[in-house]
Amino acid sequence: MRSEQEMYDLILSTAQEDERIRAVILNGSRANPNAPRDIFQDFDVVYVVRDVEAFTRDHGWIARFGALMVLQMPDLMSDAPPGDIGSFAYLMQFMDGNRMDLTLFPLEHLAALQADSLSVLLLDKDGIIPPFLPADERGYLPHPPTAKQFAEACNEFWWVGPYVAKGLWREEILYARYMLDDIMRPQLLQMLTWHIGVKTQFQCNPGKMGKYFRRYLEPEVWELLLQTFAAGTYEATWDALFSMGELFRRVAVPLAAHFGFDYPFDYDARVSAHLRHVRTLPRDATEIY
Known about the structure:
CATH architecture of the largest domain: Up-down Bundle
Distance between the termini: 62 Å
Number of domains: 2
Helix content: 40-55%
CATH topology of the largest domain: Four Helix Bundle (Hemerythrin (Met), subunit A)
CATH class of the largest domain: Mainly Alpha
Shape: elongated
CATH superfamily of the largest domain: Nucleotidyltransferases  domain 2
C-alpha cells in the first residue's frame, strides 16, 4: 500500500506537470484535524482545470494514479448528479487499498466553487484561489431543529410504523424492512443528531451517517440503537421496530421539553398500541379490529 506521502507526491506531481491543472484542493477527512487517522481514509481531491473535456475525452489518463480495483464516474451514470457546471468526478478504488475521489472543476466557473470548511489548498499556480480559513468542522455541525422540523420528524416516524407492521403481518419482509430502515431510521438518526447537539451545545460533528455517534451517545442509548438493527427474520424485525420506537421516544420527549416543542404523545400511544395489536393478529384474521 502506498504511503500517504507517496499519494500526495503523485497528486501534486501530476498537477505540477500538467499545464491544464491550475490548482489543487484537498477536502474531506484528511483535511479534518479532528478526524481519526486510519488506513481507510480517502483522498478527496479537486483539480481546478482548464478545459475539463480535454481530460474526459480519453479516461485513460487516470491510469497514472495506479491499478484500479473499481472505478465509478457518476457524471456518466443514468442518475448523474444535478447541475450543469461542467465538473467531472473520478471515484477510484486502487488495488493497493488506497482510494481517491478526484473532481475536475472548470477554471471558468471558479466563482461557483462551493466553500467547504474542510478544505486545504495544496497548490495554486496562479494565486487565483482566495485564502482559506484553517480547516475545521464548522460547516458540518448540526443545527437546532425548528418546531416544524421536529414535528415533521415525529409525524413521519409514527406514520410509517403501521406500514412496517402491515408488511410483517403479510410476511412481506423486504417491504417491511424498507419501511423500517429507509424511512423510519432516518427520522431516528435525525432525532439522535439533535440529541447529541443539545449535549454538545451543537459544537461537535456527529459524522456522516452517524459514524461518530458512539463518541457522544450515552452507553445505554448506544446499546438500544444497536438493538434497532434486525437479523433477517420476522420476529427480529418486530423486536427492532419496538426498540426503534422506544429509542425515538426516549430522545424525542426530552428534546421537545428542551426546545419548548410539542411531542405527539397521542400519535405515539395510538400507533404503539396498534403495532402491539398487529403483532398478535392471527394470519387468518379477516378484520384488523
